[in-house]
Design goal:
Two copies of one chain form a homodimer. Chain A is an alpha+beta fold and 383 residues long. Chain A has 13 helices and six strands.
Chain lengths: 383, 383
């Protein structure tokens, strides 16, 4: 008996330590309940966990043969529920209530009893252990029957109330992590939306390029995804590649802001001088972004998206693999959108004609590997 | 004796729990060392903690009367140090070394001894406890003499090695937090630099407004800081206000991208029609940004930065407190910079003349409270 007791303590202590590095609350709670059921040898365990977003206590259930089906009305309870009030009230006393047994509910005064008893009945629980962070009830842990039919011992209940404070810490910690991660995602979203808004505004100066930026970004990312899925990208952090490519594609024509409207909006073909002036946009774009730390890769994409694989492009007449990878992807996406859109001086090519033209330019204007992937993406209907 | 032992365990366990929610590694280590010194009643404690950035183990020292002055050459050691190798090698054995006593160093084979003994001597240590995360040595904890002169008991050393695994978890957790926070800061920086780069590019279209955006942002933030420090902002999250104001100031003229160059670059005064067209920039700016979630406040600043306190501004002729707070701040910053800069059709006012003009416009063009604060900021030389 002494040994079994030591075992459950040791195992549950280990579990409590392990959950500290789990930063998803759901996973953490699942693991905690599973450990409790297993090492206490009980039929099931349930946790009513405070959910900030819903401002209520939401039910989590242990899996297993004896898992309970909770009636829908009981999957969450409000902060005003008598069970919550009971623990909160007890917590402010000098001698705190570390747990509540089903068999003791009768001792609780007056009308409080019924709502509390309801909760115990729903969870088929013998005991309930509160989890506090400072003055706030974070959870109520319901314990099912022990499989050996015995009651919980004082020693077990005491230990569980210590374990409960470990679990509270782990949950608080995970919540903070989730908040930070949400903040990160939100900021990333904000960044992309802002860049998109500004690049769209610049694009709006040219009535013929409506939606160009968005389409080029879409094509470029589709190509990159196919490159990744067919194992053609190695030695690069995929997520970073996608972030950099997205940024570069959104900003690839940003330098047009430095080109005179008289050239941007000219009807008909450009003169040689005007063409040269227009070509400055990739260099101007790179210069505009040069003050942004951490934009090394996107700037390469902006600067070199008009280079050609055979070395006949601009601004630096780079050749083959010397053209940065991101720029080679944007180049094909940019060209495909340009030739399938109507311009003042020519009509749009059909999709079929455009695909043929891209295919012909393999090894000339474009990287053959990227052409191959591009054609596959087209076949799959993703472009 | 039994009681004292229980006490130190209980107190150190409590301390180990407390540090989980500390997310600054330095603070966490300081608290840990302080608790160990206090509850074990030892002279001092030192921790060699792995520092990813420096790829070495860096010394942390407990404060207190018996704090050691560590010679400079010993404030960090490389991963190749024999002490690190010893623990790492022992950790891969089936029976792991949970600690190393000064009195046992002699048992370690051959040339390993000297470097290890050096470390013990520097830290005047009786025992050293390693802290592992999986296969990686995270720290080596050095314990000074016990104040009562006794040796460490097996029971104490066993307990400390359990505590050490708690500390490892807490440190790993704090490191993850610090990484996330750094990522957040970096992203915020990226966002601001990008917005600044793009707004500067747009500003560059008008040779007379070089640096305008940057100066307006600086003035607006200086005013907001003074408003905050003199307790004139209440009921608003200051950090958010500053973020929103910065964004709005950086983007306040973004709508100029929608105005024809012929008007933007016109030498001399504008005709009535041209003026009306030019005034569209605040509405256009708001429209450009309208697709960005979470830009509610900055958009108000962009849209209404040309409203006047007496209701004679544009686009909506808002009056007094109906003009959004952020817009009222940008308005004064924008005007001050405009009148102290040379335009094609007039010379710049002197600083003194400009301050007088702003002062005269209190309650007319500008919010009197913001004028008062603005004048104070000028007096302090912050504008």
């Amino acid at each position: 008996m002494q040994n079994t007791q030591l075992d459950y303590r040791k195992e549950l202590e280990k579990a409590a330590k392990r959950i500290i590095l789990i930063h998803k609350v759901d996973t953490l709670v699942k693991l905690l309940l599973r450990s409790i059921v297993r090492f206490l040898n009980i039929e099931h365990a349930n946790l009513l966990l405070y959910d900030q977003g819903r401002n209520a206590y939401v039910a989590h259930t242990s899996k297993g043969k004896a898992g309970l089906k909770i009636p829908k009305g009981f999957t969450k309870i409000s902060k005003e529920n008598q069970l919550i009030s009971y623990f909160t009230k007890m917590h402010s006393q000098i001698i705190k209530a570390d747990y509540l047994l089903f068999s003791h509910i009768g001792n609780i005064g007056g009308q409080l009893q019924n709502e509390i008893r309801d909760q115990f009945v729903v969870y088929n629980a013998m005991a309930c252990i509160p989890g506090f962070f400072r003055e706030k009830l974070i959870f109520a842990l319901f314990l099912g029957k022990k499989k050996d039919g015995h009651d919980f011992t004082d020693e077990e209940l005491g230990f569980l109330s210590v374990l409960s404070s470990d679990a509270v810490m782990a949950i608080q910690n995970a919540n903070l992590f989730q908040d930070l991660n949400e903040q990160l995602l939100k900021n990333k979203e904000l960044f992309l939306q802002t860049v998109f808004a500004l690049s769209s505004a610049i694009e709006a100066k040219d009535p013929y390029t409506q939606g160009h930026t968005e389409r080029v970004t879409h094509y470029a990312l589709a190509v990159a995804l196919e490159l990744k899925e067919t194992g053609r990208i190695y030695g690069i952090d995929h997520e970073r590649l996608f972030d950099n490519l997205r940024t570069a594609a959104l900003l690839h024509d940003i330098g047009k802001i430095g080109i005179a409207e008289s050239i941007l909006n000219k009807e008909g073909a450009l003169t040689e001088d005007e063409r040269k002036e227009m070509q400055r946009h990739s260099d101007i774009g790179a210069k505009i972004l040069s003050g942004v730390n951490g934009f090394y890769e996107p700037i390469l994409g902006v600067k070199y998206h008009h280079e050609k694989y055979d070395g006949t492009g601009y601004p630096d007449a780079l050749k083959g693999q010397n053209i940065p990878f991101i720029a080679r992807i944007i180049s094909i996406a940019d060209t495909f959108d340009a030739i399938t859109s109507t311009r003042s001086y020519r009509k749009a090519l059909s999709r079929q004609e455009a695909v043929e033209l891209i295919s012909e330019q393999s090894g000339k204007q474009f990287d053959p590997v990227i052409v191959e992937v591009f054609l596959n993406v087209c076949k799959k209907g993703k472009i």
